[in-house]
TrEMBL record:
Quaternary assembly: Monomer.
Name this polypeptide is given: Phosphoglycerate kinase
Organism classification: Bacteria, Candidatus Nealsoniibacteriota
UniProt catalytic activity: (2R)-3-phosphoglycerate + ATP = (2R)-3-phospho-glyceroyl phosphate + ADP
Origin species: Candidatus Nealsonbacteria bacterium CG23_combo_of_CG06-09_8_20_14_all_38_19
Localization: Cytoplasm
Amino acid sequence: MKTLKELNLKKKRVLVRCDFNVPLDEVGLITDDSRIKEVLPTIEYLLKTEAKVILMSHLDDPKGRVVEKLRLNEVQKKLSYYLKIPVAKTRDCIGKKVQESVMKMKPGELLLLENLRFHKEEEENAISFSKELSKLGDIFINEAFGVCHRSHASIVGVPSFLTSAAGFLLEKEVRVFSKALENPWRPLVVIIGGVKIDTKIKTIEKFLKTADHLLLGSKLAESILTVNGLLVGREFPEKEITSRIKKIKLTNPKIHLPTDGLMSLPSLQENYLRIGAIGTLRKEEEIFDIGPETARLFSEIIKTAKMIIWNGPVGFFEKPPFDKGTKKVAEAICKNYSAFKIAGGGETIMFLKKYGLIEKFDHVSIGGGAMLALLSGGKLPGLEALK
């Protein structure tokens, strides 16, 4: 995989795939611009080399049609604010008018293309769409780790037509996760929670071979406990996931599941809270957080780690008091000053930002799905396309 500094970029049209899929509020304003700030070093480097910089990205999922509130106008404003230069923007991402805008560019100028997903051909990985995009550049740079697990036209199609390389952010993500997979510092402690069970089972299977400890929480742990008969009266996950869970042996000393939890009613009535052993869960109750005994056990294991990978909260942290377990886990991680700390996933990052803990981690990955796919030992289409 080539990297940015290996290429001669002067006066070249450099097409950069970014991940500007930022959250918006009700009126369309950006509520978190982290994904924009992450790619600034690559953009600034390209501008200094006198490249003609063309940025492209998707925003949300407009399903192949133009949705006015999903135009990249607010992204354009943020880029101009941070870079302190004018940033031009097109009304589309392909076509004659876009090509004319690119042809008028001078070295050191920046152009932002419109939302790629206004065209259904982007997600379909249509060759015709890839060709149209590739006409806009001489060189392709992938700076969108968060969508590298997708086989979309701007991720895997365009690099088949242009000289391609990884941007600084993508290069860093690959370097960090390669270290975690191939030569981790030990003990390696992996914490996995959240509600997306299907995407995380593969990660568990992989880390059963490479990690020293696996700490599991939230709906993921609940599903494993249910399938193994340790939680009664709960709904089983879908058939394929159930089958995979059955192959995970709970007698494996690496696996650590909650032994107690904070229970409430599905309506989350705050006047009904109960801490109890997992096996005492009543029919009308739900588990919304790990209990104090589990939090203590997890914290003791985290203290021993030399490398920590965290993806997914261990409880329903959005609503106190069900954030206590995740707080305890985060506190233990942050107090382990000798460990290399990696965090990733949308909910995890949301939690870290809420409590001002981002700076306590050595690496925070903005690509949750791509992070899990890579850590599961899978090949990411976006990375393979750069080889």
